[in-house]
UniProtKB/TrEMBL annotation:
Keywords assigned: DNA-binding, Transcription, Transcription regulation
Protein origin, superkingdom: Bacteria
Matching Pfam families: AAA_16, GerE
Keyword presence, Transcription regulation: yes
InterPro entries found in the cross-reference section: AAA_16, Sig_transdc_resp-reg_C-effctor, TPR-like_helical_dom_sf, Tscrpt_reg_LuxR_C, WH-like_DNA-bd_sf
Domain HTH luxR-type: 860-925
Protein known as: Helix-turn-helix transcriptional regulator
Entry keyword annotation includes Transmembrane helix: no
Biological processes, Gene Ontology terms: regulation of DNA-templated transcription
One example GO MF annotation: DNA binding
Coiled-coil ranges from the UniProt annotation: none
Length: 929
């Protein structure tokens, strides 16, 4: 491989050799940064000199051999191309028959000077036999005796056939060089780093030309034009495990060869250069020359020289490493003890210079210890600052930093009370990111609680966390400690205390019955009683909330991620669900989800996705429900979900079952769950979902067992209200399947009495179950009321089921046209809510009639725009299978008026009979009807 961007220097050296061969001796000095190509240039010139017939004496200086007297002269003689008798004579003059090691001086100053003089004369005698070339690489490390010989030689070289070629780094010139450069026969050449074009040429010597062109800019940015580093990058690219990737890469590949080259450069530069490089690596962006000098406790001039050497070597620019991999290589070579000491030193200097705590704390964390009071104060301040940034939504990375700072501060703090406070704060912040990670603080916090080191709010957070992770007895003990706290504790917020008790009473009703009785002021939402349907209008998804909101919406409107207890958000959303305000619940789920995702609050995100799945189930949006429940399960690990995993798991099982995805539902049922979950309300949800799976897969007795267990626990735990746990309806469905219709009838009648008249969806579902155990005459009017209620309630899946039942009744009564019309409506609804199994059943049981219903441009109901409002109302009810008398009664018009409206509808829509009415009516038309 040829030299790159060194041809001009090589040409000058060849001319100097030619002149020296004619008796005009020359001295040439090659100066350059570490690994700048000095040695490669020397070797290339040596090959040329030998080829030209010159005698070559070569040597290399090394710090480890500076104490070896005439060490460089010995290298000359051991590899010389001179005649043996000449080298033997020179060896005798230097006294190298038994080399003196360890820096021993000659017997007297006179004998040392005489030996150097005689060796110089011997070298001049050798040049009379032919041109003589002497090269010393890194001559600054040559021993003093050899340098004395070379000094004598350069004084006498003017008329000799000798060329002396020396190389050195960027340090100040030696006395030998300084004297030589004052003479006209001496010349110095400085090797600059390769240019970007030069780096490209070097790459092209070993890589494909296209790859070389692509990687040249990146390689120059990494190496600064240092040939050794550039060759190391090439070696890494050509390594067997990297070659394929490197061939397609635009950026260079830096690996082990590059790391070795970096360390080799630093070691060549000596101890001070290595210390400076380590200081630059540790201080990072703060590595200014003045701070480096204080950090290393050396003069600024020393640091300046080292920084210049690092920059000429292509490692740094403006006291910063060019490439992050270079910094990593330097830091990785440090022992843990060395790294800790350096980071501690950096933290101390930066703190005393007034650098912000957020910038200092990283060094303390890397040091792994912070014993001094100033260090603990820095950690506290940095944690506060990181938390403040996190609360301003400056990304989850800030929250992760806050967790790290708080963790280290709590571990390093010597004050027991402050340490408990920091640990509690850490657990609270960490819980929103990963509830499982917060569990490791339970033990220390419980110990702190026993010592009365926690505030009331911190205790309540601990209680809720213990309950979440299935440790109710420990939560009870913590709550008892809370009651024993001094009354003067300003953090004992009555609202949050009440919330905590409600949380426990709701999810562990049996265990916390005593707690609920003890706190008479609590109003547990676990026994809500009959829920009145609010009079506020239901808004479509995405509509902004009305200015005047009632209780639960006030909570949701004020909710702030990582400030508001998540329990209060769950309660408020569940209250909206119990009140059948599904669109409002969906709106708030979407609003809060956006905030939670912006702040990377995984716990909030999981709970909100789960609640959104619950809303979608109640609206009959089965695909959305299954997707959100699955997303909730992946938003948190199973361990982070704790006992609450029963909720998203139940919703996922229920949605998969309703869609007919039985394999998926069964796989979910085989997922491991905490045993303690079955003693919570989540266990009731889980058993209910499992019971419906058994019912759908024709295992009614297994379903019966689950539903009866739910009923027993609900009554025992005093949670018995169908708006939250309609176990009687579930059990009635299982009883019908095993032939116990009388018992089923009594159960569903009890459920209807408990619901009251204000509910729509749950009352509609319950009436549908009652219709299934009633005789044919009662079934028809019951199903008509069911359809009305479920349309108002917005549950498309349950409405589709009601239409299936209604179609079967009409078929039994021999009204095949009407039965087909109703089934078409059921099929449309089943498809819209992705109930695949129900859709397949309807398609399989469809019976062809004498003529197929008309399909036209009106099938999508867009043509309904040509109808008047009165005609649309009549058409909507007729499409649902209502008789003219029923339509008249519902709309408070005469049968004759109904017939007139239908006649005009048939004419405008160009159809001939009721069965041809479009079934794809917009939902608002059905609601108006």
């Amino acid at each position: 491989m040829g030299l790159v961007e060194r041809e001009a220097v090589m040409s000058e050296l060849r001319a100097a050799l030619s002149d020296s061969a004619k008796g005009c001796g020359k001295v040439a000095v090659i100066r350059g940064g570490i690994a700048s190509g000095k040695t490669a240039l020397l070797r290339a010139f040596e090959e040329h000199a030998v080829a030209a017939g010159a005698t070559l004496l070569r040597a290399s200086g090394a710090p480890s051999e500076q104490s070896l007297r005439f060490g460089v002269i010995e290298q000359f003689l051991s590899g010389a191309t001179a005649p043996p008798e000449a080298t033997e004579s020179l060896s005798h003059l230097a006294g190298l028959t038994t080399p003196q090691v360890g820096g021993e001086a000659p017997s007297s100053a006179q004998s040392g000077t005489r030996a150097a003089h005689d060796l110089c004369v011997g070298l001049l005698e050798l040049s009379r036999q032919g041109p003589l070339v002497i090269t010393v690489d890194d001559h600054q490390f040559a021993d003093s005796a050899s340098l004395q010989v070379l000094t004598y030689l350069q004084h006498r070289i003017g008329t000799a056939r000798v060329m002396l070629l020396l190389s050195q780094g960027t340090e100040a010139p030696s006395e030998l060089v300084a004297e030589a450069l004052r003479q006209p026969y001496a010349r110095q050449f400085t090797l600059s780093p390769l240019s970007p074009e030069g780096v490209g040429q070097l790459l092209a010597q070993r890589l494909d030309s296209l790859v070389a062109d692509q990687q040249a800019p990146g390689s120059y940015a990494v190496t600064g034009g240092n040939p050794l580093l550039t060759h190391a990058l090439i070696d890494d690219s050509l390594a067997p495990d990297q070659e394929a990737a490197a061939g397609a890469a635009v950026e260079p590949v830096a690996g082990q060869a590059f790391t070795r080259a970096v360390l080799a450069i630093l070691r060549r530069g000596g101890p001070q250069l290595l210390r400076t490089a380590r200081a630059v690596a540790v201080l990072g962006e703060f590595a200014a020359p003045a701070l480096l000098a204080r950090f290393l406790d050396v003069r600024p001039s020393v640091v300046g020289g080292a920084l210049e050497t690092l920059e000429l070597a292509g490692l740094t620019t403006d006291a910063q490493f060019r490439y992050h991999g270079t910094r990593t290589a330097v830091l990785d070579e440090l022992t843990p003890e060395e790294r800790s000491a350096l980071n501690r030193r950096a933290a101390e200097l930066l703190h005393h210079d007034g650098v912000a705590p957020s910038d200092v704390v990283g060094y303390l964390l890397a040091a792994g210890e912070a014993d001094e009071p100033w260090a603990v104060r820095v950690l506290h301040a940095a944690a506060d600052q990181a938390l403040a940034h996190a609360e301003q939504a400056l990304a989850g990375g800030k929250v992760a930093e806050a967790v790290q700072y708080l963790e280290f501060a709590s571990r390093s703090c010597g004050d027991e009370h402050k340490r408990a406070m920091l640990t509690a704060r850490l657990a609270w912040v960490q819980w929103t990111i990963s509830p499982a990670a917060a569990t490791r603080h339970h033990g220390p916090l419980q110990t702190a609680l026993e010592k009365e080191l926690l505030s009331g709010r911190e205790v309540m957070r601990l209680v809720r966390s213990l309950a979440w992770h299935g440790r109710p007895k420990e939560a009870v003990r913590a709550l008892e400690c809370l009651d024993a706290l001094p009354e003067g504790d300003g953090s004992r917020d009555p609202a949050e205390r009440r919330l905590t008790r409600q949380w426990l009473a709701r999810w562990y009703p049996q265990i916390f019955a005593q707690v609920e009785r003890h706190a008479a002021m609590a109003e547990p939402m676990s026994s809500p009683g009959p829920v009145r349907r609010p009079h506020t209008a239901v808004l479509p998804r995405g509509t902004a909330p009305a200015p005047a909101v009632d209780g639960p919406e006030q909570v949701l409107q004020r909710a702030r991620v990582r400030e508001t207890p998540l329990a209060s958000v769950i309660f408020a959303l569940h209250e909206l669900l119990a009140a059948e305000r599904f669109e409002r619940a969906m709106y708030w789920c979407n609003e809060l989800l956006q905030k939670a995702e912006g702040q990377h609050a995984a716990a909030w995100r999981g709970v909100l996705l789960d609640t959104r799945a619950a809303v979608s189930l109640r609206l009959g949006d089965l695909a959305d429900a299954e997707r959100d429940a699955s997303s909730a399960l992946t938003a948190l690990s199973a361990r982070s979900w704790g006992v609450a995993i029963g909720s998203p798991l139940s919703h996922a099982i229920h949605a998969a079952t309703m869609r007919g995805h039985f394999d998926r539902a069964e796989a979910l049922l085989h997922q491991m769950i905490p045993q303690s979950m079955m003693d919570t309300r989540y266990g009731l949800q889980y058993r209910t979902a499992r019971g419906h799976f058994h019912l759908a897969t024709d295992r009614p007795h297994a379903a019966l067992e689950d539903f009866e267990a739910v009923g027993d626990l609900v009554v025992k735990w005093k949670l018995d209200h169908p708006m939250t746990l309609p176990w009687r309806g579930d059990l009635a469905q299982a009883l019908v399947r095993v032939g116990q219709t009388d018992r089923a009838r009594e159960l569903i009648k009890d459920q209807l009495r408990m619901i009251g008249p204000d509910s729509t969806r749950m009352r509609g579902i319950s009436l549908g179950i009652l219709a299934s155990v009633s005789d044919l005459k009662q079934r028809l009017p019951l199903l008509g009321e069911v359809v009305d209620l479920l349309q108002a309630g917005g549950d498309r899946y349950q409405l589709a089921q009601a239409f299936v039942e209604l179609g079967q009744v009409w078929q039994i009564l021999g009204k095949l046209d009407r039965a087909q019309l109703i089934r078409r409506r059921a099929l449309q609804l089943a498809k819209s809510c992705h109930a695949e199994q129900l859709s397949h059943q309807l398609l399989a049981t469809r019976e062809p009639l004498n003529s197929e219903p008309a399909t036209s441009q009106w099938e999508d109901a867009e043509g309904m725009a040509v109808l008047s409002e009165a005609e649309r109302r009549v058409a909507a009810l007729a499409a649902l299978g209502r008789t003219n008398r029923e339509i008249g009664r519902k709309l408070h018009i005469t049968v004759s008026t109904v017939e007139q409206h239908l006649t005009r509808v048939y004419r405008k829509l160009n159809i001939k009979r009721r069965a041809d009415l479009p079934v794809g009516l917009p939902a608002d038309i059905a609601d108006i009807a």
